[in-house]
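I hope you will forgive my troubling you with a question about protein structure. Here, with my thanks, is the record as I have it:
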Amino acid sequence: MMNSTERRRLLIAAAVTVVAIPVLMISGGSDSPSDESSTPTTVVVVENTEPADPAFLPVDDSTPAPDIITVNVPAPPSGTVIKGIASFIRWPETLGLRPCATPNALIGSIITVTNLNNGRSIECNNVSIQQLPGDAVIIIHTEVFLELADLVDAPIPVQIAF
């Protein structure tokens, strides 16, 4: 336990600290008064009132944009007719297209598909040129395939023309 002398010393040290810290903070902690009087005060006047460019914009670069490269791909011969078998697949959102897929024609080609069993024919848009499973030469969206044959008849022999 602290005796009374130690308590008085601690109380005096705390009082001096409480008074000394604000005095030093107000005076700026400077020991020499000549520093304040010898420093001239300057006022900066800004005449340009336009806002600065945002920092996130890229620097203006005067290099020209690259040229657009055109690649010419020869179209398959017109009037191409291929015989094979067709099956069906359901595409989720067809957006009004009548989709079908065959690697034998360009994407976007309109293909005429004729069922060799009953003579019915349809037109569809080629949306994929990936390799097809099995011996199929074309796969057709389910709703379009129903115009050629019943689903239980698949795969059916067809002739495709594009």
Remarks:
- The first helix runs from residue 4 to 27.
- The mean pLDDT is 80.
- DSSP finds three helices and six strands in the chain.
